[in-house]
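cache lookup: miss for this entity combination. No prior model stored, computing from scratch. Input as submitted by user K.M.:
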Amino acid sequence: MKNLKTLITSIFSTLLFCSQISAQSKFAQLDFEIPTPNEFRNASGGPGHNYYQQKADYKISLVLDDAKQIISGEETITYTNNSPDNLEFLWLQLDQNIYAENSDSKLIEVEKMEDFRSISDINREFFKYDGGFKVESVKSTSNQNLKYFINKTMMRIDLEKSLGAKQSISFKVKWWYNINDRSKVGGRSGLEYFKEENNYIYTIAQFFPRMCVYNDVEGWQNKQFLGSGEFTLPFGDYEVNITVPADHVVGATGELQNAVDILSSEQKSRLKSAATATSPVLIVTQKEAEENEKEGTSKTKTWKFKAINVRDFAFASSRKFMWDAQGVKIGDKNILAMSYYPKEGNPLWEKYSTKLVVHTLKTYSKYTTNYTYPVAISVHTDRIGMEYPMICFNGGRPEKDGTYSEDTKYGMWGVIIHEVGHNFFPMIINSDERQWSWMDEGLNTFVQYLTEQEWERGYPSRRGPAPYIADYMRGDKKFISPIMTNSESIFQFGNNAYGKPATALNILRETIMGRELFDYSFKMYCERWKFKHPTPADFFRTMEDASAVDLDWFWRGWFFSTDFVDISLDEVNHFQLNTANPDTEKEIKRLEKENKTLFIGEIRNKTSIQATINEKDTTIDDFYAKRNVFKSDTLDKLFYTENKKKMSAEELALLNANKQFYELKFTNKGGLVSPIIIQANFEDGTSQVTYIPAEIWRKEEFKVSKVMIYDNKVTSFQIDPFLETADTDVDNNAWPQKNEPTRFELFQQQREKENPMQRAKRAEELMKGK
Amino acid sequence: MKLLFFVLFFVCYSKTFAHSYFFAFAEVEYNVMQEKLEGTLIFTRHDLEEALIKKGIISSTFEKLQHDSLSISAIGNTLFNDFKFFSNQIPIKLSALDFSLTKNGLIEIYFKSEKVKLSQNFELQFNSLMDIYPKQQNKITFIQNSEKRTYVFMNNESRRKITISN
């Protein structure tokens, strides 16, 4: 019995606790969702006083076999343990093993019989390509074999003696693999084959065994590469020698060290002039590239590159490449913006690519942190977009006749800005991509939007503006992932990792924090974490720390939940103040009675009853019937005079100001708390916008009301008039209610302006005019 | 069970894209006066273009097919294999009227149904592009009497029953 009582008390207490939590949960601080600050990451969102990061330096020699499409390499890695921990083993990433025959990435795809409707579907299933790493040896620098174990896309090297704090170790890895053909197996890295001329463009990345990150958050970040969650890499210095056919032109992460040996005197002179040029200078012209691609060669050349403090290395190589460059100064650094592209990329690439690189570096540096690497390169590929330090591979190919669609142009512009922008997220602000795609893709897409808008007024950005995310966010929450979801488990990768965070940051900037506070805080995050490894908590904390805006509710709603914004304006009630002046108030009542809508019977009785009894018999009406209720008497006036004496001049003025009171009632239908932006449109044609912070929902999540007081009478209210909150249903945002036209209705309106015959007639007249 | 082969000779597509979209959306309203479903299908343009070119439904980009009624009809016929309404288990015939292209990379395809009296319970199927992009997710927002309801369709849940108020 005692136990039962205890149980009941316990259940009751729990329910009471839960109900209290529920009422204020939207505004609870993120105490449980993010890690407790510590000596490595402080409570302000900056690096802690004992913050550390590991260093991995590479010396790599590569050979690109153009005849067999094989890349082979030997690398010496020097790994420095800056952590306070002893490391018994080291983990390296073998990302290319996603193309190995035992790869998990294919096995984990959910399939059903409908996926095998065509021969090509079945062909695809049986298509074999052995693209995994062939690791030939792992040795110490004194050529002793080291023990290693390959677990799919990860390789563990077992150390004979633990690597202690502040100690370094060097070792060598020798490997090769078959380069993947993107048209057959896809891939971020790979080759494109030009059958007519038997030529290749190689865009090669995640091509060598790379050190995993070891840090205070994950220990070793050795989560397998399954295809979506990209790369988590430590910073280090690279010296890379790339041996390619002698007629190839190579662009890579880092600065070319042997231009003297590699380039012609003409090319060296052009490259020198490009450094101070205000528009792109061709180092290899189209004519030269077209000449170059006609014949192959069996000779080779070695291009030598050096890159300091980068987290990765990638390169592109082809005999088809044109090459242009333009200098750009960011802070006190002179940077060379460059592009590599085949004739198939023109006319778009020669005209825009390098200019876009320059613009992106400048704009991103303004909003984030200065770009400090010596080069930034955009390489043309067919369709894909992929980023690496100082170099990225971008789609955007005109048609064979040299024309291109507007979609191709904007697609190319967008992808170049996006991929060059990745130099900042995650190449400089080096987040854990394997875990959190949004930390680089989302933040980058947000700054991409800012950059696009500074490139062309009204640029049709694909992502960023709040209304664009509404279709994705509305509806059944079961198939939406919170932004704070591991990269591999996200429904709708593009909308979740790119679109939603970019929109959220836009809303923070435009609506919640304002541009000045946001820009300062966002830049502070970038400055604090440049060339370091931030986590989501570091971002969330810095944005609050630098702005004094409590944003926990915002992170909770936008990043940890699948709620969406749908605030409905349910009801509007109009009130006016009672002035207490009997003359005024009784006149108002008289007018109200006069203007009252009459019941039909009363209207008809006016004519059907010629005279009532009391109209015919004057003795019927008594005091009540004869008194004028709309006229003030002496007592009314005396009472008013006495009351007036008790009021201050300000109170009296307010009483007589004829203020209009409107009680607005709202429902939060989507669950995501949001500011309420109210536009009142007045009788005189003017309007007023009031911003109610989201905290209005702090005690009541679902229904709130607000009284708005104006000098003029309101004819209509509009909620979220500038479409800044990503409200998923704008049809319940107005009073009187008005439905926004559907896309179909807009189409019909457009269509009805001119029927097909009218259009044909207009075309005919146009032709006659010619 | 025998496999049905719809022999479509198109080459293997790139399965891995670093930056994927894979999202389609439909906005559908029942026009009570005309007793017809009216709506718009919205796709990421390059997704749909690539899929239809590879299936041999169109031979050039959408930009070149604007106002070409034969192509619009062919596009519609293909799309309506995977975008269906069933009233009392019977598919409702849909026809494409036109399409427009937005500068930010979307295509909007406008359609209308035959005259139909909607039953209170009907079914929706929206598995467009799921055969090509397994991660495709589609959504329909159904508008009736100014009320909007949104339904999600996934590769493993591409047909749903919905109930409307009469």
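stored under new cache key. The longest strand of chain A covers residues 70-81.
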